[in-house]
Amino acid sequence: MKKIFRSLTIAFSLAATGLWAQTPATENDYYQLRTLPIPQDAILEVGGMTVLPDGRLAVCTRRGEIWLIENPYQQKGTAPYFKRFAQGLHEPLGLTFRNGSFYTSNRGELTKITDEDGDGRADHYEAVTQLPIVGNYHEYSYGPLFDPNGDMLVTLNVGWVGYGASLTKWRGWLVKVSPDGKIEPISAGLRSPSSYMYNSSGDLFYSENQGDWVASGKVSQLKKGSFNGHGESLKWTSDPASPLKLTKEQLPDTGEPVATAGEKIPHYQYPACWFPHVLMGISTSDIIEDTKGNLGPHFKGQYFVGDQGHSKVMRMYLEKVDGEYQGACFPFREGWASGLLRLQWGLDGSLIGGMTSRGWSSTGKAPYAIQRLIWSGKTPFEMQEIHSKPDGFEIVFTKPVDPETAANPANYKISSFTYKYHHLYGSPIINAEESKIKGIKVAADGLSARVVLEGAFRKHYIYEIKPEGVKSADQESVLHPVGYYTLNAVAKGDLVTASQFTPFKATAAVHHHEMAEAKAETTKPGKTATKASSAKRVTEMPASWSAPDQVITVGTKPGLKFDVSEVQVQAGAKIKFIFNNNDDMTHNCVIVAPGAVDEVGMKAINLGLKGPDLQYVPASPKVLFHTNLLQPESTETIYFTAPSQPGDYTFVCTYPGHHTVMQGKLKVVK
């Protein structure tokens, strides 16, 4: 009894002093996902989606069909009803409805589809225009989107031949199609422009995926005559119809920072918002503006952006500085069932996500899905907005902050970085630098904190802003304590003086980022962890070997896959391991201990800004051997002695977002 009484006394004491931490809030506490049951005969690999005026959801699929879904909101617990409306299309990747007809972009055709007799099935298919195509698998066509004049906008992927190639006219462009089918080129330099939209101000934006010439995912404004970075589309600028005359030879293909390269390129359009690769997502998809506050009034006027590979929705806040858009992206809601490609607002205010994963693997395990995201009505403690200021940034929060933690500079970490501009696939993070904080001014209402920095700002750089130690007035932690602000110009305005900084007690808050730095110190170049990791990558045959006992070759193929699922080696054998990256994405190959793949994969994701320098190979005793990150169409050979303990080991790509699906078995036998 004495032991029980003592335990209860301790429990009440901890509760009274607040030392028992509340259960941390999760995304699901605020935003719930609801899955639509899909009939077995409907292979709903979503390519496009639109909500009809009567509330029905129309979906076109990559299998060439259009389905109409009645009651997609599952009112009163009733099931939705699916009816196939059209078929026989060629991988349509966009869908819209106007004046009683559907419009969709197939591979090589913009098609108008009409139900003329009113029986709920299409009976008239009309080719509005033929879209340019040679038949390359990567020549996707997206849209259309109607402009204010009634013309249609279509975006055209480049092909892939080991690099992005514009194999026929206007591939890599945004084009306008008139009602009579005439094609007019508008904007160049696109690679894989899967999604684009007009915002409430009438400005056009598109999202882009990492690839050759494209350092990372991004959202950019599209303007007539602008160039968005991908060099292959410029082979058509000599055509009289081209709105710009830039040539590929004018591009500084040197690997210099995007921040400076863009200044040398006529008509170059800097992104309004970078979505740092793997730090935010890996394949930026649809963009949708919340003009009604459907996901909470605190985010009204902001944008929600999908990511196909990471099966997630991100949030974006934009502002105009010197007449150009710039702003920040934030994590929002992970855990969607499949690769999130399309977003639409339901008539009930829910965010509907259409998904597909075939050939474009994702962290979501389902091959396809439709889900709705519903706001619970509760407000999370988040960074609501980030504003550029002449001496730093202003962070606006969704709830009043605790003034003590919010005033402590140690509870923030701000770093900046950029990428290389070159024809190679993607880019490592370069020129990373931590900013020194001079002080913090917390607003009287507690809803914002002005973070004043020392030194000059770096234009066209990405600023990572992390208020990790800041608490709300009721001691909540920030649900997503990171945002990435693309700084194209520094806003003008009043400066904050030292006398205006909010006082704080030096011991009042935990120095979160200093603890993180100390923890990360072991992974810096030259430290023990990196040396240990380097010993696991031997690229020359050891002098003590006369020859390897076994040669293993592992390659890659599209869809985040290795080209072999299992290899077998003898325990203790001398292995020559050849890794060929045949894919159009960056990969490594890491051999890990049995059962360790998820642990190692998550550690790779958590490397953050240090990941590229460490090849996304974390310092872990469970990492046995590894290659470096390889660009597409490249190879590396490593040598190692197979483990002496028989068992099922795993070879895996630890590039963030890949480890959950890109795995194979290394079977060690006696």
Can you put this structure into words, describing what you see?
- The longest helix is centred in the N-terminal third of the chain and has 16 residues, at 2-17.
- The chain has an eight-stranded antiparallel beta sheet, with no helix packed on it.
- The chain is built from six helices and 43 strands.
- It has three domains: 35-375, TolB, C-terminal domain (Neuraminidase, 6 Propeller), CATH 2.120.10; 383-523, Sandwich (Immunoglobulin-like), CATH 2.60.40; 533-669, Immunoglobulin-like (Sandwich), CATH 2.60.40.
- The protein has 670 residues and is mainly beta.
- In angstroms, what separates the terminal alpha carbons? 57 Å
- Biggest sheet, in brief? 8 strands, antiparallel
Mean pLDDT: 92
Q: Oligomeric state of the chains?
A: single chain
> What is the C-level CATH assignment of the largest domain?
Mainly Beta
- Please state how the strands of the largest beta sheet are arranged side by side: 20-21-22-23-34-33-29-30
What portion of residues belong to β-strands?
35-45%
The number of helices is: 6
Gyration radius (Cα, Å) is: 26 Å
The CATH H-level homologous superfamily of the largest domain: TolB, C-terminal domain
Helix proportion: under 10%
How many domain units?
Answer: 3
CATH architecture of the largest domain: 6 Propeller
Shape: globular
Question: What's the count of strands?
Answer: 43
Structural class: mainly beta
CATH topology of the largest domain: Neuraminidase
Question: Regions with pLDDT < 50 over 5+ consecutive residues?
Answer: 1-21, 507-533
